[in-house]
Amino acid sequence: RDGRTPLMAGNWKMNLNHLEAIALTQKLAFSLDDPDFEAVEVALLVPFTDIRSVQTLVDADKMRFSYGSQDISAHDAGAYTGEVSGVMLAKLGCTYAIVGHSERRQYHGEDEAVVNAKVKAAFRHGLRPILCVGEGLDVRQAGEHVGHTLAQLDGALDGVPEKNAADLVVAYEPVWAIGTGEVATPEDAQEVCGAIRGRLGELYSKELAENVRVLYGGSVKGDNVAAIMAQPDVDGALVGGASLQADEFVKIVRYSK
Ligand code: PEP
């Protein structure tokens, strides 16, 4: 993966209050305080209520973590009770916002139009969307996983210009592998991550496709990450459950050791 910095992104989902967030962030910083992991970018995607605490720690101790949110409003301000805008996230120093996670699509009815609007909202405020795409079990069993995932990618990027798309991160997350312990084989991950890169080349340019990072997500752990990372089109992992345990997440970050 010439020139693409591996990205290990922890999605804490709806876990850890702000005090627990501080404890985990400090533990990670302590364990990762050596030059060994300098070739890897580590991002913490945390609940909205934890962002300020993570920001304060990262700034005060110059921690080498990026951080961000797990969702973003499609709107910038106004009468949208319960939502958090890109303006607010940018003000908190966020680099990333997860967009279109399968749990948002499933439990909050986020369709392609919503995901597309949220991708655009992130770019409006200088945030980098971590765009999640991936098929459910029925689609996989029907052998339509590549087409399905590329259609999600097309929908999410509709009308997004190349200058923005260059800052995109895509996460291929087969829904059947999320939180199930059922990890995709390295070949499965490569097949779809490679297809995503190919489509980015068609939608934009070969140069953009070579630079955008494509992650795999779905039951990544310390003992399966190296085989997945050995695939040429997998540039990192979006990690749910294992990102809540400092030791396990540190193993993932140190996958090459
Ligand atoms: C996720 O929620 O993005 C995820 C990949 O979860 P897990 O690692 O727990 O499967």
From TrEMBL:
Species this chain originates from: Sporichthya brevicatena
Quote one Gene Ontology molecular function term.
Answer: isomerase activity
Cellular compartment(s): Cytoplasm
Q: Which InterPro entries match?
A: Aldolase_TIM (IPR013785), TIM_sf (IPR035990), TrioseP_Isoase_bac/euk (IPR022896), Triosephosphate_isomerase (IPR000652), Triosephosphate_isomerase_AS (IPR020861)
Query: Which reaction equation describes what this protein catalyses?
Result: D-glyceraldehyde 3-phosphate = dihydroxyacetone phosphate
Pathway note: Carbohydrate degradation; glycolysis; D-glyceraldehyde 3-phosphate from glycerone phosphate: step 1/1; Carbohydrate biosynthesis; gluconeogenesis
Please state the Enzyme Commission number of this protein: 5.3.1.1
In Swiss-Prot or TrEMBL terms, this protein is called: Triosephosphate isomerase
Family per similarity comment: Belongs to the triosephosphate isomerase family.
**Biological role stated in the UniProt entry:** Involved in the gluconeogenesis. Catalyzes stereospecifically the conversion of dihydroxyacetone phosphate (DHAP) to D-glyceraldehyde-3-phosphate (G3P).
Which positions are annotated as binding substrate? N11, W12, K13, G179, S219, G240, G241
- Does Cell inner membrane show up as a keyword for this record? no
Q: Which UniProt keywords apply?
A: Cytoplasm, Gluconeogenesis, Glycolysis, Isomerase
Instruction: Tell me the Pfam families matching this sequence.
Output: TIM
Superkingdom of origin: Bacteria
Broad EC category: isomerase
HAMAP family linked to this entry: TIM_B
Active site at H101 (electrophile), E173 (proton acceptor)
Report quaternary structure and partners. Answer: Homodimer.
